[in-house]
Amino acid sequence: MEILRRNIRDLDISIWVILLLLAVYGCVAIAVTTHNNPDPNIPTHIMTKQIIWECAGIAIMLAATVFDYRTLRPIRWWIYGAAMLFLVGVFGFPAVQGAHSWISLKVVSFQPSEFAKVALIVSLAGFMADVDESENPDYRLRKMWPIAVMFVPMFALTYKEPALGQALVMIAIVITMYTVFARRSHFAWIVAALAVGVTGISVAAVMFSNQTTQFINDVIVKHHLLKAYQVNRIIVWLNPNYSLNHYGYNIHMAQVAIGSGQLFGEGLFHGHLTGNGWVPNQWTDYIFTAIGEEFGFIGSAVLVFLFLVLIYRMIEIARTSTDSFGAYLVIGTVGMMAFQVFENIGMDMYLSPSTGITLPFISYGGTSLVIDYLAMGIILSVGLRRRTFRFK
């Protein structure tokens, strides 16, 4: 704790405040989604478990803050190897709801893909820092093959589980870190290509939903590139009226719940859809719908504002980091958090396909919550040891 006492002025208190507010948001949201909810899938003693995970996560974040993040750099390959071992080992455990995503022990269950995201960030940060600090840095694309070597096996194993949401988060991590890592000559092209590509594909898919659906059936389904339920989620995004009583039911009810909250919400424990369990899995993937119905647009906007401030403070820590390794650690976490927030909230309003991604610090879950706190602890460790400006 001596490092905290000597460098307390460098500790970003605003991040701690935001995370505590998000913890309160999460506990309240879980309480309203499970109160008198008849769904048998709700874990027993869910609030007690969530509070225990919150306390454990905060303790881990504090420990990670005190821990010198620079120690991770020489052991990054051990961290990467451990993550790969977990991703392979998960296939030796029984599938849960058709997916090999959990290592289930007698006391606790562990989701390897959550840890793999942090391991990927640490590994990429080490490589990028090595290039930056080399005598003759070479940023040409043909020299970037180690990034693919680190990314592809993790992505493939995660996709194989299948955990498409986590695999997409890994893509977001790589793109975000490489965008910052690339030289200025590449930066404009990367940003332009991403913006044009994503916008163009999304607009074209929505405008020509029938043709896109046909393409999905003729190419993606025929060649088994995605699971049937994943394909149906994309079709629901393209056509909101598709299979409202089956595949489109979750998203349809999610949108209705958010809309019913209007400006100020229906009040705590007064949401009709939330209180009667009309939105499936509302305590995990669709927890934002409970906030929208109970607290309305105002409460939802406050939550989004907290996430925006959190991401802004993270970027400030990266900008003022003392070394490249620390900066890349933060940037990778920014990509991870920002994508998860956008995807989770966006899928509730037809802005993106449903992928089963939890909302950081809000959704119920042990592994995801602890890993998110661990990542924030590493960021606070970087911020605690910053002295000079690097990224302008």
Quick description:
The chain is an all-alpha fold. It contains 15 helices and two strands. The chain has a domain at 2-76 and 163-168 and 196-384.
Q: How would you characterize the overall build of this protein?
A:
- With 392 residues, this protein is mostly helical.
- It has a domain at 2-76 and 163-168 and 196-384.
- Helices cover 66% and strands 1% of the residues.
- The chain has helices spanning 2-6, 13-34, 46-66, 76-89, 112-133, 145-160, 164-181, 184-207, 209-221, 228-238, 249-260, 272-275, 287-319, 324-347, 367-384; strands at 103-104, 109-110.
- It has a two-stranded antiparallel ribbon with strand order 1-2.
- It is globular and about 60 Å long.
- The two termini are 31 Å apart.
- The model is unreliable at 388-392 (pLDDT under 50).
Q: What is the topological layout?
A:
Elements: H1 2-6, H2 13-34, H3 46-66, H4 76-89, E1 103-104, E2 109-110, H5 112-133, H6 145-160, H7 164-181, H8 184-207, H9 209-221, H10 228-238, H11 249-260, H12 272-275, H13 287-319, H14 324-347, H15 367-384
Antiparallel strand pairs: 1-2
- The percentage of residues in β strands lies in under 5%
Helix content: 55-70%
Poorly predicted sequence stretches spanning 5 or more consecutive residues: 388-392
Query: Sheet with the most strands?
Result: 2 strands, antiparallel
Average per-residue pLDDT, rounded, comes to 84
Looking across the biggest beta sheet, what order are the strands in? 1-2
The span between the termini is: 31 Å
What would you report as the Rg, rounded to the nearest angstrom? 21 Å
What is the chain-wise order of helices and strands?
HHHHEEHHHHHHHHHHH
Please, how many helices?
A: 15
The total of beta strands comes to 2
Shape: globular
Secondary structure category: mainly alpha
